[in-house]
Design brief:
It is a single chain. With 414 residues, this protein is of the alpha/beta class. It folds into two domains: 231 residues, Spore Coat Polysaccharide Biosynthesis Protein SpsA, Chain A; 120 residues, no CATH class. The chain contains 17 helices and ten strands. The strands form two sheets. An eight-stranded mixed sheet has the order 3-2-1-4-7-5-8-10, with helices on both faces. A two-stranded parallel ribbon has the order 6-9. Strand 1, helix 2 and strand 2 form a beta-alpha-beta unit. It starts with 7 loop residues before the first helix and ends in a 7-residue tail after the last helix.
Length: 414
C-alpha cells in the first residue's frame, strides 16, 4: 500500500514525527468493564517501555479520551476502519493492517503491534506481551494465545490453526491473530510482497499471510498468553461470506508457499510468553439442529458442485452422513480433513469460480461445527484440548494425501 493511501494530514504528522521504535495500532475505540480504558493503556505503555519512542494510532476521532503526549509517546487519531475514511468505500480490517504497515515503514519502526479485538478485555499487558519479544529478542512475529472456550473461534479451531500447523510445521494457536506483534523486517516483507501479488490478481490478506510469510522467511515466531478474548457474535446466516474471505486467503498462501510446505514434516511447538489463564465463564452457543439442517440441505442441493471437487468415495461418505439423525450426527476427523484439502486443491485448479467454490463449502463446515459441538456438549477444558489435538493430528496424518493430490491432481485417484 502506497503512502498516498494515507490522508494528507496524517502524512504531514508522520513527517513531523520522523522515526519511532514502536507503532501501536488500536483498531477498536470501544471500552468496557473488565478492561482498561484507552487512557490507562497509554499511561501503562509510557511507564512500561521507558525511553522507547512509541507512536499510538487510534482508530476514529470520536469517543476517544484525550491523552497527554510526551516526547516518547505520540498519539494519532485516524479513521482506519470507520466510514469517514475516503481511501475505500468499505474499509476493512485488511486495509487497516496495510495502513499500519505503511505507517510503520514510514517511521522506520523496529516493531508494530496491532490490537484488533474489542478493547473490553484488552490491557496494556497484551501490548507488552506481543511486542517485548520482538523488541528485546528479535522475534519476527508474536501471535496471541487466548484462553480457549469450547465454542468460540470455531473457524480457527476447525481449519485455520490445524491446517497452518500441518502445512508449515509450527503450532501457532491463533495464526491470524487478530492481535499481533510484528517486527520491522516482517512489515517490510509484507509491503514488498503486496504489489507482486496484486500483479497476479491475488492481493495478499495481511492478517492471514503474516504467519506463513514469517515461517517461510526463516523468522522466529512465538506466542503470548493474553487471557480471554471477547469474540463478536457468530452470524451463522452469513457464514459463507466469512468462510470465503478467510479460506480464500489461506488457500492463496498455500499456492505461494507450496515449495516450502511440501517439504515440511510434522510440527513443533513455538515459545510461549506469559502465563496461561483459566476461563471462569463459558460463552457462545451452537444451534446444532439448525446446522445439521443446513448440512442436509447442502447435501441435497450442492451434489453437482461438490462432485467437481470431492472424490467419489468422499461424496459417498457425505451422503451417508446426511442421513444421520441430528442428535447422532458425527463427522469423522479424517473425512473432514480430506474435504478441506480437496477444496484447497479445487481452489488452486479453479475448478469453478473461487468465490462460488468456497461458499459451496459452507454446509460442510456447518456440519463439522455441529459434530464438534455435539461431541463436546458437556466436556470439560481438558477434554476439549485433547479433542482439538486429535483434530490437528488428523490434519498432519492426512497431509500426504494433500501433497499427492497437489502434485498429481489428474493422476492421483483416492
Amino acid at each position: 500500500m502506497e503512502l498516498d493511501s494515507i490522508p494528507q494530514s496524517v502524512r504531514e504528522r508522520l513527517d513531523q514525527i520522523g522515526t519511532a521504535d514502536l507503532v501501536v495500532g488500536l483498531l477498536s475505540n470501544g471500552t468496557g468493564p473488565g478492561g482498561e480504558s484507552v487512557h490507562e493503556i497509554h499511561q501503562a505503555l509510557k511507564a512500561g517501555f521507558g525511553k522507547l519512542r512509541a507512536v499510538i494510532i487510534q482508530d476514529g476521532e470520536s469517543a476517544l479520551e484525550p491523552v497527554e503526549e510526551s516526547e516518547s509517546q505520540i498519539v494519532l487519531s485516524w479513521n482506519l476502519i470507520g466510514p469517514e475514511r475516503a481511501t475505500s468505500p468499505a474499509p476493512s480490517i485488511s486495509d487497516a493492517f496495510q495502513l499500519m504497515f505503511t505507517a510503520s515503514q514510514k517511521l522506520e519502526a523496529r516493531a508494530c503491534c496491532v490490537v484488533a479485538s474489542d478493547l473490553q478485555n484488552v490491557t496494556s499487558g497484551w501490548i507488552s506481551g506481543l511486542t517485548q519479544p520482538v523488541l528485546e529478542m528479535d522475534y519476527g512475529l508474536v501471535t496471541p494465545r487466548y484462553t480457549n472456550q469450547r465454542f468460540e473461534g470455531l473457524l480457527n479451531t476447525g481449519i485455520v490453526y490445524p491446517i497452518t500447523r500441518a502445512l508449515y510445521g509450527k503450532r501457532i494457536y491463533n495464526p491470524m491473530g487478530p492481535d499481533l506483534g510484528i517486527s520491522g523486517p516482517l512489515v517490510q516483507q509484507m509491503l514488498a510482497a503486496d504489489p507482486k501479488a496484486k500483479a497476479t490478481g491475488n492481493r495478499i490478506h495481511p492478517v492471514a499471510s503474516l504467519a506463513p510469510t514469517a515461517i517461510c522467511g526463516g523468522m522466529t515466531v512465538g506466542q503470548a498468553y493474553l487471557g480471554a478474548r471477547v469474540y463478536p457474535p457468530v452470524d451463522w446466516t452469513n457464514a459463507s461470506s466469512l468462510l470465503a474471505q478467510v479460506l480464500g486467503s489461506v488457500f492463496l498462501d498455500m499456492e505461494r508457499y507450496a515449495v516450502h510446505w511440501q517439504k515440511t514434516r510434522g510440527s513443533v511447538s513455538v515459545p510461549d510468553f506469559g502465563e496461561p489463564n483459566t476461563v471462569t465463564e463459558e460463552t457462545g452457543a451452537v444451534d446444532v439442529k439448525r446446522l445439521v439442517d443446513s448440512f442436509q440441505l447442502g447435501a441435497r442441493d450442492l451434489q453437482e458442485i461438490w462432485s467437481l471437487v470431492l472424490p467419489p468415495t468422499t461424496l459417498m461418505e457425505v451422503r451417508r452422513l446426511s442421513r444421520q439423525a441430528p442428535d447422532q450426527f458425527r463427522m469423522p476427523d479424517e473425512l473432514w480433513v480430506r474435504i478441506v484439502y480437496d477444496f484447497a486443491l479445487g481452489h488452486r485448479l479453479r475448478t469453478i469460480s473461487r468465490d462460488h467454490l468456497l461458499r459451496a463449502m459452507t454446509p460442510l463446515y456447518l456440519g463439522w461445527v455441529a459434530s464438534f459441538a455435539l461431541e463436546l456438549e458437556t466436556a470439560g477444558p481438558g477434554v476439549v484440548e485433547r479433542r482439538r489435538e486429535r483434530l490437528c493430528e488428523a490434519y498432519e496424518s492426512q497431509k500426504p494425501y494433500l501433497v499427492s493430490r497437489w502434485r498429481w491432481p489428474d493422476r492421483f485417484n483416492p
